[in-house]
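Exam review. A common question shows you a sequence with its structure tokens and asks you to describe the fold in words. Practice with the pair below. Do the first one on your own.
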Amino acid sequence: MSEPLVLDGRVVAKAVEADLQARVELIKQKTGVTPVLATILVGDNPASVTYVRMKGNACKRVGIEPLKIELPESTTTEELLKVIEELNADDKVSGILLQHPVPKHIDEKKCFDAISVEKDADGVNTASFGSVTMGGNGFKCATPFGIITILKYYGIELDGKHAVVIGRSPILGKPVSMLLLNENCTVTICHTHTKNLPEEVKRADVVVAAVGRPKFVKAEWIKEGAVLVDAGYNAGNVGDIDLENAAPLSSAYTPVPGGCGPCTIAMLMQQTVESAERKLAK
């Protein structure tokens, strides 16, 4: 068996950013206005602080203006909703991102659903998910969108393939399942309660692991030649698949780190730019 193809998300993200730089420049020329991505950070979770900084750096690379809003841990749902409403009404803002997770006392779903669908650059509003599922033009959840973008960039055939998604979260497992379905995959959605999980995974042409457990998916579960997409990121820089042993069995795989993560941020940038373009087209 030949060496598996490494699906390098950094390469894909770089290509996306190069395209976005030109598109942002065109928006500036036509309107004199720079698209703005507003990022809301509640509390000081170290991982979230890092992610917000990375997103701000990506904004600068493509020419988007980052607007960082930092709120204290004690912020209530009502106070957060007021901030979101203000950003919804701000004509300068093209995209809004509420950094996940928020403190436990906040109703995260209510806040996600308060984000205007026109500015939902992270694709977290229930209405956005519904639109994508039904083939509309709603914005997609960033990580699932990034996964599809990586697979397409590297020419991975999806039409008619059997994809097994392990994980059912509302911002990863469920939306990536719908996006794969839209690409004409036959999709099986599994999770930690699935009976005979190894047998289900063994049938897959494409495996998407999004379960949030380090090295949960074992090499012996993998069908030879399958495509492995590891959407997990756990302590110690390891994903949800035991890639050390499973990757050699695959035809292609996303590394951890450097696979899905860079493309998640790139898709956030892309949908912010697309929001600005849609407004311009009106």
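Now try the second one, then compare your answer with the model answer below.
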Amino acid sequence: MSDEATTPPPIPPKDANPDFELEREMTEKLKTAHAEIGRELSKVIVGQKEVVEQLLIALLSGGHCLLTGAPGLAKTLLVSTLSKVFDLSFHRIQFTPDLMPSDITGTELLEENADGTRELVFSKGPIFANMILADEINRTPPKTQAALLEAMQEKQVSVAGTTLELEKPFFVLATQNPIEMEGTYPLPEAQLDRFMFNIVIDYLSEDDEVSVVQQTTGAGAEPVNKIFSGEDLKKCHEVVKRVPIAEDVVRYAVRIAASTRPNREGTSDYINEWVNWGAGTRAGQFLVLGAKTRALLQGRAHVTFEDIREMVGPVLRHRVLVNYRAEAEGITVDKVIEYLVESTPEKA
């Protein structure tokens, strides 16, 4: 037998691996772009650093977000500015009690051709954009809320027996007002679970509010520059999934999610006493995805327990349902989550 037949082929260098090249390219790009994105957003958005960070993590992970906050806290401005920084098409949908599903997805219209014949032509609705702001999503009936379900999960829309693919990347960022509950339709758990994060936007500090008033009553903000593109985002979604994570860290995320479920073996007494319903499997998935993205943004190629802990609040806030006893005792979801992080050990 000849030497040529028995000699194994040479191992290609890592640089020849297209996946490795993509990871290296996007990791380096994220390192430099993280600070740049923050600078561009700060031209328009004052303060809210934690909110901006969580939104960035969700977008770079490919997840949808629920934004909870009182009116006038610049939720719409924040989302529209993000779409400019990432060079994404943007549509805002005002959810009202009379909004119909076809107002979101689009409808067929009867149009007359030049020769006098008529045909049905599909007119696309505002759902056909990269970034959708579903403003006050809890003000519209469940039938219309459900029109977002397929789009959020499957990235497609079914109209008149035809399935249309949505352009990727595709994000839904929905806002809801936690104060004014009269005349609202709370989102069902099935739809809440499709949001990666529930991000709470609070009032600004006095200094930040002074800056906002000066900026909005003066000459106006500087124009925002594009930092990322839609193609960059799609590449980033692939890279995030390849970030290595130790099994112990994954188990920690899974234990935190599982610890929210009442009346199960090993569940803490305070969970059994205060919680009606806990988080499902998606919670663990989103904890890990968010932690991987946070690690990349900080220039690390590995995930730590601290990365998981930082994701617990936004991931679990809308997945843990407290009962009447907790409300009577003044126990909020955030307080339950705080206890949960303190009582869950890193290693079993």
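Model answer, second protein: The longest helix spans residues 18-42. The chain is about 45% helix and 15% strand. Full marks require stating both points clearly.
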